[in-house]
Amino acid sequence: MSELILLDRFQWMARIRAFEQACLEGVRTREIHGELHLAIGQEAIAAGMVGWMRDDDALVSTHRNHSHALVKGVSPYALLAEIFERSTGLCGGFGGHMHPFDVRHRFSASGIVGASLPVALGHAYSNRLSESDAVAIAVTGEGGANHGTFHECMVMASAWKLPLMIVIENNGFAISVKTQEFATADVLAHRASAYGCAGAVVDGTDVDAVSRTFSALISQTRSEMMPTVLVASCRRFQGHYEGDVQAYRPQEGDISAFDPLVRTRRDLMSTGVPVEDLDRIEKDAGVEMQGLLARVRSDPLPNSVDALRNVFAEGGEG
Ligand SMILES: Cc1ncc(C[n+]2csc(CCOP(=O)(O)OP(=O)(O)O)c2C)c(N)n1
Questions:
Q1: HEC letters along 213-251
Q2: Chain-centre distance of CA 184, in angstroms?
Q3: Which of 24, 83, 111, 121 could make an SS bond with 63 (beta carbons 3.0 to 4.6 A apart)?
Q4: Is 149 exposed, middle or buried (0-12, 13-18, 19+ CB in 10 A)?
């Protein structure tokens, strides 16, 4: 594990955004079916985690999962192919964008809100049983943090001293429900103290702050074998899903002040990084993801004959 410099984190954010933009294209062309949930505006949270997770740490995410998959080491090509429903995808094109599953990188996600928590809890329990000091990270939205699973997992993880870290991405809305209608970021973090655990709040648009806070909490989870909760607040730039008309959303005007890429760009320029270098990083990220998209588009779709494979356990009796 190593400390990345801010420029590296800028590059990660640029790659995540370019990946999301490549997905956006698939909605416009109707190559992607069903709901697509993007994390444009939320890139600093995933990019701040880079360098602090070990290969044997598990990361379990939500319906809005692409950024987390990428920073956990999932191949962007296999992920994009999965989202574009190709047989070369991570799950052969049958999982789709909400259910990527990568055993090798200990990454998975679920479209069931609140489901990342018990799955991560299972990883944490398994780590404890095998006397490993690997950590399990559950990402959830602030809406998901209102589920019973959040509290049930905190009860069990604190009672059994399990290395579970919960990252709450507080993007302001759970579909159309404003966070401020039920909690503040502080209230969400204080929930950890009800279980005798540490909780922290961070500005999720400040990649450097996310990195520092995430690093401290994951180290604490690992060394103390106790759950922790990190609340990272940011803005969701897109609708809940692509196609959401967002009638519930007030006119927010210029939201570039909340754009983590704009903010990091400004910070880097103030330290003397030339604008051309930053432009090149963003351009290269776009070229990389458009290159993957071209590859994915020429890949075959899954064969319908395989639709029922890997659905039921095979080889059992009757
Ligand atoms: C158990 C369950 N209930 C409801 C839904 C429908 N649903 C999908 S996303 C979502 C809101 C999630 O909000 P939040 O956890 O804040 O995540 P965000 O979308 O803001 O990233 C809901 C209610 C679901 N997928 N699963």
A1: HHHHHHHHHHHHCCCEEEEEECCCCCCCCCCCCCCCCCC
A2: 21
A3: 111
A4: buried
Q: How far is the CA of 130 from the centre of ligand 1 (A)?
A: 33
201 close to 209: Cβ distance less than 8 angstroms: no
**What's the Cα-to-Cα distance from 252 to each of 195, 235, 255, rounded to whole Å?**
37, 11, 7
263: Cβ below 6 Å to ligand 1?
Answer: no
Name the residue of 61, 62, 142, 175 to mutate for ligand 1: max ligand atoms within 8 A of Cβ: 175
Is the shortest distance between the CB of 265 and ligand 1 below 6 Å?
no
Q: Check pocket membership of 52 for ligand 1, CB cut-off 6 A.
A: no
pLDDT along the chain (318 residues), means of 10: 82 98 97 96 98 98 98 98 97 95 98 98 98 98 98 98 98 97 96 97 98 98 97 97 95 90 97 97 98 98 87 67
65 lines ligand 1 (CB under 6 A): no
pLDDT at 254: 86
Q: Give me the domains of the chain, ranges plus CATH numbers.
A: 6-238+275-297 (3.40.50.970)
Read off the pTM. 0.96
Query: Do 235 and 180 form a contact (C-beta atoms < 8 A)?
Result: no
9 CB near ligand 1 (under 6 Å): no
Name the residue with the closest Cα to ligand 1, atom 13. Answer: 174
Q: Is the CB of 144 under 6 A from ligand 1?
A: yes
CA–centroid distance, 246 to ligand 1, in Å, is: 15
Question: If you search the block for the tokens 């809305």, which residue do you land on?
Answer: 173
Tens digit of each residue's pLDDT (9 = 90 or more) over 152-199: 999 999 999 999 999 999 999 999 999 999 999 999 999 999 999 999
- Residue 306 is predicted with a pLDDT of 86
Q: Does 122 contact ligand 1 (Cβ within 6 A)?
A: no
